[in-house]
Design brief:
With 137 residues, this protein is mainly alpha-helical. Helices cover 49% and strands 6% of the residues. It has one domain (10-55, 75-135). The chain has helices at 5-9, 12-31, 45-52, 102-135; strands spanning 41-42, 77-78, 84-87. It starts with a helix and ends with a helix.
């Protein structure tokens, strides 16, 4: 009898990857808080997780290319992991065109950190349970 680790870990492995990608995006926003004309970006975690699991996200249909000469459809700017990044609309835009609001970014970064740590804790307990099952305890 074989064990599928994808089934054993469930969605948590994909969620951790997305949380790490979101950490990078939010850290980039914070690092560029003083860069003129820098636009803060982020992505919707729930939608990205559904896409990672291959689920339909809101009934949106993909555009089909009916001829080889047609250009492919372009969405938002994908991040390194293929997640579509969206530009954040600031509450108080700055005069230099920068849309990074440090307090908002720090809040989202902290929230993402808590969720990442919770995911690690969950995966750790799942691995401990699998090890116990393999040992027959």
């Amino acid at each position: 009898m074989s064990i599928s680790l994808d089934k054993a870990f469930g969605v948590q492995a994909a969620a951790l990857k997305l949380r790490a990608q979101r950490h990078e995006v939010l850290a980039e926003n914070l690092a560029n808080a003083d860069t003129p004309h820098f636009k803060a970006r982020d992505f919707d975690f729930r939608t990205a997780l559904q896409q990672a699991q291959g689920q339909n996200t809101g009934g949106a249909l993909a555009m089909a290319r009916t001829h080889a000469g047609h250009l492919p459809a372009q969405g938002g700017a994908p991040a390194a992991g293929g997640v579509e990044l969206q530009y954040r609309v600031p509450f108080n835009p700055s005069l230099d065109g920068n849309t990074v609001e440090s307090q908002v970014e720090q809040s989202r970064f902290s929230e993402n950190t808590v969720h990442y740590q919770a995911g690690l804790t969950f995966l750790g307990s799942r691995i401990t349970g699998l090890i116990s099952a393999i040992r027959g305890e």
